[in-house]
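Example 9 (inverse folding). The structure is encoded as follows.
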């Protein structure tokens, strides 16, 4: 089976070249059959993945959660296996995988949201606003570990909770929610443990509904997610389900594994054992370090 490494074209060409050289060195050392593909303005991720629709390879996304999501959506329905080298801002999917996956090929749950797919987390409300603020999340000036906190500081003062209707488990919940998080895995925001009991292959989604609260308490609540203390708050409701619908009165932008998705209605459904994923910590360490 061939390894196809798909790299983002980083803003600094030197960074892309260095990473490419590392991959070549490691693959030659391990005697891995490989190819390297680099997306850019003339060759998108979708264009690249169209070449591999009828193959059975390990397609390795080299980048952050958004890169993994774009590769995922390009290989769903094919025989290809999803792999990854965490080289992004948050790397939250990688953080969750380290805790639950075995070395080699694993099968994990896949989640469909409207006509797209995700494997980590989809969020709505202030968390989506923060995640979609590319100037902060992808800043070269702000250190990675502070970007989510900076996004929170910039956005929570002016953010107004939305009216949502959330339908799950044959019940509907209508309220003003500051944030809604739908979890297949445990982390978001660069290490915030929003759903500590989520598991990538348990056949269930965890859904957190966070009701409107004052700005000060909201800031404390979100920062408490770093250690999963938010679950103790009376403002947070936690549900488990296999599918749900989220509706709003006006179109809003969600953040789905680092990618933006806008709609007035989001239909979300878990697909048990929906995607194969390759995990190799030694390969990751050799290339990153």
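The amino acid assigned to each position is listed next.
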């Amino acid at each position: 089976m061939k390894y196809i490494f798909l790299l983002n074209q980083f803003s600094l060409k030197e960074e892309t070249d260095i990473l490419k050289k590392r991959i070549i060195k490691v693959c030659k050392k391990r005697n891995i059959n490989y190819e390297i593909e680099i997306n850019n303005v003339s060759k998108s991720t979708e264009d690249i993945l169209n070449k591999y629709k009828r193959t059975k390879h390990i397609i390795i996304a080299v980048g952050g959660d958004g890169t993994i999501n774009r590769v995922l959506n390009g290989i769903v329905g094919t025989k290809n296996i999803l792999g990854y080298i965490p080289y992004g801002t948050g790397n939250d999917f990688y953080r969750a995988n380290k805790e639950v996956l075995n070395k080699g090929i694993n099968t994990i749950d896949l989640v469909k949201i409207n006509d797209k797919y995700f494997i980590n987390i989809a969020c709505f409300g202030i968390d989506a606003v923060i995640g979609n603020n590319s100037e902060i999340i992808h800043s070269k000036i702000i250190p990675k570990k502070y970007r989510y906190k900076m996004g929170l500081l910039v956005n929570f003062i002016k953010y107004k909770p939305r009216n949502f209707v959330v339908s799950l488990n044959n019940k509907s919940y209508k309220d003003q929610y500051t944030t809604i998080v739908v979890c297949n895995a445990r982390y978001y925001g660069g290490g915030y443990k929003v759903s500590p009991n989520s598991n990538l292959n348990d056949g269930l989604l965890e859904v957190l509904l966070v009701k409107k609260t004052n700005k000060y308490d909201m800031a404390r609540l979100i920062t408490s997610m770093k250690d999963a203390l938010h679950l103790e708050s009376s403002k947070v409701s936690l549900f488990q389900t296999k599918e749900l619908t989220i509706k709003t009165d006006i179109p809003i932008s969600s953040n789905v594994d680092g990618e933006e998705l806008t709609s007035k209605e989001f239909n979300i459904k878990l697909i048990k054992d929906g995607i194969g994923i390759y995990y190799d910590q030694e390969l990751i360490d050799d290339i990153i370090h």
